[in-house]
């Protein structure tokens, strides 16, 4: 019997009753005036005039430290940003989300990824549903680890291939990279996301069909890339084990669409549900975490959930002025909406967090890459910036030059894990993060450029010729987040922090952070082109199709 869908709140979401629009906010008007005055004093001068700036503009919680003193802010601006949060009834929003109100107001859904990690302030019905799934997941993981669940030929499973894309891939992939160096791996773990067969074929070439389990992770169970890779895996197994083999022993599914997973041939007892109230890009806490439980054990995954809950508790209770996700959100709004900074670099100074920028690209850009507000009107302010980035120090030797001497303002998050007794190399990593943040803020004046060249013994004529090319304007705003050593708990804190940041920004911008109607346009266009539909096409597409036909002979 399918459990009745818990109705956390039958009344229409609180968002229907909110009249706040950012362009009608008095705090926003004040912030616009402050933005117009930016530049009259450099950050270098701000630090020179205020030796307490770091103490004033940094905040710590549960082992994390957020230093936002290199942002283009002052006490008055922070007060107005906090006033903006109050004008937007942010606390109402937080309470509404946690209580399961339908704040995903276009799809009329609750938003309860906090329940997926069993945060106590979420509806018990949601947590009960999650706990029931967790019980099934743990039983399955134990059967695999103990060799009670075996392959079609009776062999133990030793290799798990996770097939998924977007939110059904990026979270598990990030966590696997973060956990691997410090947690013994019980099983080999591979990820296949791209429809380009090169990716899954490279995995299958090194996999043993008698010992390989495929996880088909798809909330909709209709994503073309995932179904293509699942069918590729099915054909590979059938070819290797024979059409009479019990191939179903090699597949499990994680989905909100149980019927479609059954139709694919996956047994009901190994279909693990994803509730509709957990968005794809917020789903790493849900059954989507199965590959991590299989590879690293359920204790590690429980620790990850605990880290997320710790951040939930902080977010739900800390005053906004010392609330890390709220501060990160307000600073992001200040940069993107009021200072017009269109790009935001996420720079984790850790190889283990190298996929964090990709994860945050989806979390931030798919959530807040929107421009229509609760009332269905076009917003008249900038919303989410372009998120990009990569691991330090690698990026310093690739694209940091533009940050120093390009024509554009860029905002930065430096994410810096700090372990006990770091090795000299790890210390160098940390020192580089601090150096980049400081150098981008301070810049290099013409006088300093001349002094540097003179110190190198360059003659005066050459100094005058070269010095202008060494000038760095500085004043690039950054936040540095110091986090404890990478553990499942600290990674849970980190991801939950950014989830709440995204929620706060969407709430204040007045947009829906939890749907993604835009990407469907591209999907529909791809289906139309693939099917060769006789649709009216633009001249570029027609020209390209003709050229491809010539090049490929298709
Ligand atoms: O196309 C965007 C998207 O729907 C994301 O929101 C989602 O995380 C991804 O595709 C995968 O979707 P599914 O889990 O349904 O396969």
Summary, kept brief:
47% of the residues lie in helices and 11% in strands. It has helices spanning 26-37, 43-49, 53-56, 75-87, 90-98, 113-116, 124-145, 170-179, 197-205, 224-241, 258-264, 290-296, 298-317, 324-338, 356-368, 400-405, 424-442, 446-455, 460-466, 488-509, 517-530, 539-552; strands spanning 58-61, 64-70, 159-163, 188-192, 212-217, 251-255, 271-273, 343-348, 386-389, 411-418, 478-484.
Characterization of this structure:
The structure is a single chain. This protein is of the alpha/beta class. Helix content is 47%, strand content 11%. The chain contains 22 helices and eleven strands. The chain has helices at 26-37, 43-49, 53-56, 75-87, 90-98, 113-116, 124-145, 170-179, 197-205, 224-241, 258-264, 290-296, 298-317, 324-338, 356-368, 400-405, 424-442, 446-455, 460-466, 488-509, 517-530, 539-552; strands spanning 58-61, 64-70, 159-163, 188-192, 212-217, 251-255, 271-273, 343-348, 386-389, 411-418, 478-484. It has a six-stranded mixed β-sheet, sandwiched between helices. The chain has a five-stranded parallel β-sheet with strand order 4-3-5-6-7, sandwiched between helices. Strand 1 (58-61) and strand 2 form a beta hairpin. Helix 12 (290-296) crosses helix 13 (298-317) and helix 14 packs across helix 20. The longest helix is centred in the N-terminal third of the chain and has 22 residues, at 124-145. It starts with 25 loop residues before the first helix and ends with a helix. Residues 1-7 have low confidence and may be disordered. The chain binds 6-O-phosphono-beta-D-fructofuranose. 6-O-phosphono-beta-D-fructofuranose binds next to loops.
């Amino acid at each position: 019997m399918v459990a009745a869908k818990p109705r956390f709140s039958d009344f229409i979401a609180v968002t229907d009753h909110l009249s706040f629009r950012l362009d009608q906010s008095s705090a926003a008007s004040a912030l616009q005036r402050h933005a117009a005055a930016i530049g009259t004093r450099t950050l270098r001068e701000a630090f020179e005039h205020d030796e307490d700036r770091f103490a004033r503009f940094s905040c710590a919680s549960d082992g994390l430290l957020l230093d936002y003193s290199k942002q283009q802010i002052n006490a008055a601006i922070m007060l107005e940003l906090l006033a903006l949060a109050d004008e937007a009834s942010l606390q109402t929003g937080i309470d509404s989300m946690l209580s399961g109100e339908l704040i995903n107001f276009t799809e009329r859904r609750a938003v309860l990824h906090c329940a997926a990690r069993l945060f106590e302030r979420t509806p018990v019905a949601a947590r009960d549903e999650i706990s029931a799934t967790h019980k099934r997941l743990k039983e399955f993981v134990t059967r695999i680890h103990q060799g009670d669940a075996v392959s079609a030929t009776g062999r133990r499973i030793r290799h798990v291939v996770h097939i998924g894309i977007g939110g059904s891939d990026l979270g598990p992939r990030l966590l696997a990279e973060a956990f691997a160096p410090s947690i013994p791996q019980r099983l080999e773990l591979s990820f296949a996301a791209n429809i380009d067969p090169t990716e899954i074929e490279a995995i299958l070439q090194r996999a043993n069909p008698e010992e390989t389990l495929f996880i088909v992770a798809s909330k909709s169970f209709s994503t073309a890339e995932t179904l293509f890779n699942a069918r590729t895996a099915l054909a590979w197994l059938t070819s290797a084990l024979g059409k009479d083999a019990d191939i179903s022993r090699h597949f499990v599914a994680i989905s909100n669409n149980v019927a479609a997973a059954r139709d694919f041939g996956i047994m009901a007892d190994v279909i693990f549900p994803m509730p509709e109230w957990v968005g794809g890009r917020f789903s790493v806490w849900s059954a989507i975490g199965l590959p991590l439980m299989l590879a690293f054990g359920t204790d590690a995954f429980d620790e990850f959930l605990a880290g997320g809950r710790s951040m939930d508790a902080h977010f739900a209770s800390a005053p906004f002025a010392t609330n890390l996700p709220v501060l990160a959100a307000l600073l992001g709004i200040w940069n993107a909406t009021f200072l017009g900074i269109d790009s935001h670099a996420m720079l984790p100074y850790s190889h283990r967090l190298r996929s964090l920028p990709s994860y945050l690209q989806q979390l931030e850009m798919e959530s807040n890459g929107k421009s229509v507000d609760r009332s269905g009107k076009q917003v008249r302010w900038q919303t989410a910036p372009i998120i990009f980035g990569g691991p330090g120090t690698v990026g310093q030797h690739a694209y940091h030059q533009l940050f120093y001497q390009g024509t554009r303002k860029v905002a930065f998050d430096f994410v810096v894990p700090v372990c006990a007794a770091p090795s000299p190399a790890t210390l160098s990593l940390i020192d580089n993060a601090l150096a980049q943040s400081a150098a981008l803020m301070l810049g290099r004046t013409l006088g300093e450029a001349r002094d540097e060249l003179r110190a190198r013994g360059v003659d005066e004529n050459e100094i005058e010729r070269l010095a202008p090319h060494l000038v760095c304007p500085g004043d690039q705003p950054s936040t540095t987040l110091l986090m404890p050593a990478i553990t499942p708990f600290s990674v849970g804190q980190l991801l939950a922090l950014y989830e709440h940041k995204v929620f706060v920004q969407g709430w204040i911008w007045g947009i829906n952070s939890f749907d993604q109607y835009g990407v469907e346009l591209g999907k529909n266009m791809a289906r139309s082109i693939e099917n060769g539909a006789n649709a009216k096409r633009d001249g570029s597409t027609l020209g390209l199709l003709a050229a491809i036909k010539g090049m490929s002979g298709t």
